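Hi,

I'm pasting everything inline rather than attaching a file, because the server keeps stripping attachments. The sequence lines come first, and each chain or strand is labelled.
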Amino acid sequence: MTSTEKNIEFPQSILDECNRVIQLFPEGKQKSALLRILHIAQAHFGWLSVEVMDYIARMLHIQPIEVYEVATFYSMYDTKKTGKVKLEVCQTGPCMIEGAERIITHIEKRLGIKVGETTKDGIFTLKGVECLGACGYAPMLQAGENFHEHLTEEKVDALIDEYRANPTANYMGMIND
Amino acid sequence: MSEEIQKFKVTIDGKTIEVEPGTTILNAARQIGGDIVPPAMCYYSSLKGSGGKCRTCLVEVSKGSEKDPRPMPKLMASCSTTVMDGMEIKNKSSERVVKARGGVVEFLLMNHPLDCPICDQAGECHLQDLAYEHGHSKTRYEFNRREFDKIDIGEYIKLHMTRCILCYRCVYTANQLTEKREHGVLKRGDAAEIGTFIENSLDNEFIGNVIDVCPVGALTDKTFRFKSRVWYTKPMDASCNCDKCSGKAVVWMIGDEIARVTARKDEYGEVKEFICNDCRFNKKDTNQWNIEGPRKIKRHSVISANHYEKETPKHTTLLNKA
Amino acid sequence: MTKKLLLENVHIEGINSYDVYRKNGGYSAVEKALKKMSPDDIVEEVKKSGLRGRGGAGFPTGMKWSFLAKPEGVPRHLLCNADESEPGTFKDRYLMEKIPHLLIEGMILSSFALGANQSYIYIRGEYMFVLRILEKAIAEAYANGWLGKNILGSGFDLDLSVTPGAGAYICGEETALIESLEGNRGNPRMKPPFPAVQGLWQRPTVVNNVETIAAVVPIVNNGGDEYAKIGIGRSTGTKLISASGNINNPGVYEIELGLSVEEFIYSEEYCGGIKNGKKIKACVPGGSSVPILPHFLITKTAESNDRLMTYESLAEGGFATGSMLGSGGFIVYDEDQCIVRNTWNFSRFYHHESCGQCSPCREGTGWMEKVLHRLENGRGTMEDIDLLWDIQGNIEGNTICPLGDAAAWPVAAAIRHFREEFEWHVTNPNEATKRNYGLISEKVFEKVNA
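And the predicted assembly:
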């Protein structure tokens, strides 16, 4: 990877959303919007490339390294390309008790990939993640912004079919437009 | 002299001193000097915000202050805890401290390659000194150690992340001495690493100071790497006319040749006057320097072993405690 | 029937919308406060209520508020900690999802009490769908004059917004939260200075948990004294408990502090007993970081007192025989669960979540995970158990922030109470992964602790 000034463009709707978020903070404190803007960019581009991060650094008047530091710290950001739909299965505590492993094994078999891998068609990436705050509704997985709880093998199959047919259904709000 | 600011009286391992309010325990200890001074791997006086991270300087506060004599329940990082009047501190005299520090040394060494014989920092490595003084002779860690590829960050600096103990000093250095920081801490937990993320060369004219602040062999001077073991060199105080920095440096000689140039470090390994890249990397000719005389090297064992200077005791205002 | 202060109206259809919330008495506390009370009156009521921080630490809220520095001309901030990430805890999500205006109402009251004019809700990034619910509710509150300039003509201005994290448990620690809110890595800060003096953007700041802030609404409505009537001793009011694990009715419950643990686990109103008619083996009563209790210390303390859902009773016996109320993440384990496996699982969590700033936590959490993994898979030794004990001891109390303790305590408690199960994993390597050890015997425990 090398640094680049390559022209990537944020569509106007995304720029407007970024500006709205920046306005939530006092003048000079625009860096506070960084985490939200990274979410917005990731929802739009699928992942955070160097070009996207450099663009955001310019937008917020901060150094690119400050963006890389943050993007690599938080587990939700992907600085490498992923599938369109990330199936993130919670494996902590109560989810483990209720069979998170069973669900992961099932998805692995069904998609023919291991945890951390992406399907050849580029649609699914499977991840094992830590507690998502759905302990009472275990086992569960997150896909984009959606929580899918009380999972069974059958439910997972249905989900996979649904997402395969419509991979963008996992984001809400303006990002889909 | 009644206008004088009231000083705080603190006692560390039985030795009492009066210091300015706002002084940290570590700096109070340094004012006393000697072996009551806690070791510090991440704190660096001239770098604002540094400290608190390595936990090697933990001490026991056995008496909070004259007003509130209760002991502090947890061990405190002496580099970032300020003294109170009447505070009593146990460093080496506390069993808890000795145990905790042994634990910290073990944690720091866990993922550190124990290949000191072939490390360029050997002889002036603070981790080596720390482990010698506070560590165990045997490792209990039986798993694979963290490893990274060596990378060049710029023409003059080699980054060997495998050796890094994540003290963050180089990050503070870049933040405070340069206008545009290009390296930082990436990822988190034990996967955290110092890096530039993208291929990038650090070319700010003060960036060479990251080498001097690095307590281990993670950041080294490519113009010197493996030219000589440090204890075969003779450090000499030298100065030059420089329009970018003070020009006050140490030149490390092999025979009549300058093998490397560093800033001047005090007995705690700290640079007070940083030097520019030009002085550090490009002035390797004795004609470019006014050589003042042999550098007094204190504390750091291996280098001082080759030395003929006697350490002069530091003047401190020790108070006699009955 | 238990008195409910937060979730009383949660089942009313449409309560997540402004109109329904308002029709059911919503925002009456703001009317009362802005028209009849001074900021100090509110602080006083909160002090009287005995409310303690509901995020885990249990520090008295009124006292925390009174520490806030108020230098002339410097803005101060209230931050709501909605980073809820402690395994076993999902109560804040429930509250925000079901009845978002309650949190907003609490934010208005608390911001008024603290003199904060710009407040933020910091929510974990995975709860993006909850963030959208809150943003919608905040827009409704603005549209109806509860936020913005000169609220109800009182002269009090408040801007409120939600901002997300992005996957980092550590950001639930208040100084890491502040760093994150400033757009930085979530590295906790060294204290002092405390947030009350130098917090967000170096300004005086209070950080409170979602449930704590929501509790200010009934406190203002009914008065602090009324709130303090509920509960026992220094555990006043109601508490949201997230119940999960091998129970019949997992979910979020609002209990009156002082309810017996026995009733909480076995009554139909709450957990409804252990699933599939199994026996209870262990319980983590306050989120993954608090000490696990073996079956014979759950409903009774070591002194044979009834164990109650209070800060004090759950802690009775200290770490030797007690635990903590923590965040109220109540996880129940039946006789088929493996404690070594669970401890390994938790240690993986803490390893994953360590920010990596200070060495004991950065290195120690990963080491514990590796040793526990080895033990769980039948490749461990008896020395490994002692090694684990040592590692956790070298982490505890020696780190910058409480994550070190949170990682150490579950390991310590598991070894303290379930040592024989750890040893069984060593002596029965072939069975270690196949079957579970079952219940530990009380007698062995007594011997160990004698």
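The mean pLDDT of chain A is 92.

If the labels don't parse on your end, tell me and I'll reformat.
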